[in-house]
């Protein structure tokens, strides 16, 4: 089972992602999967600040909306080319995250989460009320699709699927490099305790702020992709319920793992799609499933499996370490000086 989280497992997921459009029955399935990829990218970013650094940011969907509205405003109102606006979506979210992080990260635990919840709601109100900039409740309509890159045109659901999939793969690869580096271990040390991290010589504020900025950069890029894919924006994107959705993806898959949030972000939307025949009653089924997962798999699917594998390997290694040292044989005893034969 080790190969599931190693390189073969990631290559298998890559192959499945590349092959999915050829097995999808219609464009609707491509749309559902592409949207899931976009929110998976944002969830990977949220997992960095929450799962790896231990700071629960409830304004994450607000930063995603900032990235999306950056693309929408620049392309629709100022005729900026899509790819320039898309690059600025991540930059804008990161710059805003720098100033918000400077203030919010001075707080700890629940106080930080409550503060970011308020920040997220302020973002929602600004988007909803500032009609001159964001078009208010009417939203932004007619966002152009991503411009062609050489011979590659993004004018069909399949081509848009591969575009979104490319950025998800790139984002996961970069995140893997981050969390397996010394910087990633620094973030995990902060998660395990501020006092412990300080005793190791870690600058708490600087590293927390860096994790926060990297996290919202992912959210901003996901928002930019969302704008180019959906091509319509409304204030609802900044709603805190989207942050709670991403939190659910992390909890289902496994908080503080790389594969877990990705698995949760892809599995949960498809589960809700298959329960749509229940209409408004689908949450009567979906809710208990989530409760059972939290009770019996508190570390998520991937986190629980990794813990089981670690305990199993430790159990296999323990007998070999604790095995008694074999004593000399009877023949050896009898041939030693002072030894006697039976």
TrEMBL record:
Hydrolase recorded as keyword: no
Keyword flag Membrane: yes
Membrane topology: Multi-pass membrane protein
GO terms for cellular component: plasma membrane
Protein name, as recorded: Candidate ABC type branched chain amino acid transport systems, permease component
Record InterPro entries: ABC_transp_permease, LivM-like
Transmembrane spans: 7-24, 30-49, 56-76, 82-103, 110-127, 160-179, 209-229, 249-271, 283-308
Gene Ontology terms, MF aspect: branched-chain amino acid transmembrane transporter activity
UniProt keywords, alphabetically: Cell membrane, Membrane, Transmembrane, Transmembrane helix
Broad class of the protein's primary localization: membrane
Compartmental location: Cell membrane
UniProt-listed CDD domains: TM_PBP1_LivM_like (cd06581)
Organism: Ramlibacter tataouinensis (strain ATCC BAA-407 / DSM 14655 / LMG 21543 / TTB310)
Any Pfam family hit: BPD_transp_2
């Amino acid at each position: 089972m080790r190969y599931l989280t190693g390189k073969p497992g990631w290559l298998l997921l890559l192959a499945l992602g590349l092959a999915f459009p050829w097995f999808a029955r219609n464009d609707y399935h491509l749309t559902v999967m592409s949207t899931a990829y976009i929110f998976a990218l944002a969830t990977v970013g949220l997992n960095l600040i929450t799962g790896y650094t231990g700071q629960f940011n409830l304004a994450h969907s607000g930063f995603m909306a900032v990235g999306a509205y950056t693309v929408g405003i620049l392309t629709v109102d100022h005729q900026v080319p899509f790819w320039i606006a898309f690059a600025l979506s991540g930059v804008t979210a990161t710059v805003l995250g720098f100033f918000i992080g400077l203030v919010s990260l001075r707080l700890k635990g629940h106080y930080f989460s409550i503060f970011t919840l308020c920040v997220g709601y302020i973002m929602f109100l600004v988007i909803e009320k500032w009609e001159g900039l964001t078009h208010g409740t009417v939203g932004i309509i007619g966002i152009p699709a991503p411009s062609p890159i050489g011979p590659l045109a993004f004018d069909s659901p399949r081509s848009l699927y591969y575009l979104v999939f490319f950025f998800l793969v790139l984002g996961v690869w970069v995140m893997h490099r981050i969390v397996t580096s010394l910087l990633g271990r620094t973030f995990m040390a902060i998660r395990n305790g501020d006092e412990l991290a300080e005793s190791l010589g870690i600058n708490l504020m600087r590293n927390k702020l860096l994790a926060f900025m990297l996290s919202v950069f992912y959210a901003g890029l996901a928002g930019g992709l969302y704008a180019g894919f959906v091509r319509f924006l409304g204030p609802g994107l900044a709603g805190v319920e989207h942050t709670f959705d991403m939190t659910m993806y992390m909890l289902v898959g496994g908080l503080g793992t790389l594969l877990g949030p990705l698995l949760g972000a892809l599995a949960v939307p498809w589960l809700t799609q298959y329960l749509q025949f229940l209409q408004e009653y689908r949450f009567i089924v979906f809710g208990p499933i989530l409760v059972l997962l939290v009770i019996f798999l508190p570390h998520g699917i991937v986190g629980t499996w990794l813990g089981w594998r670690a305990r199993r390997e430790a159990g296999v290694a323990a007998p070999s370490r604790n095995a008694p040292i074999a004593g000399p044989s009877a023949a050896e005893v009898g041939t030693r000086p002072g030894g006697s034969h039976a």
